[in-house]
Amino acid sequence: MIMLVDDTRRELEEHGTETFPLTVNHDDLWMFEGKNVPIHWHQEIEISLPRGGKAVYQIYQNSYEISPGDGLLVNRNVPHSCWTISIHIQNP
Question: Is 41 or 90 the better-scoring residue by pLDDT?
Answer without folding.
Answer: 41
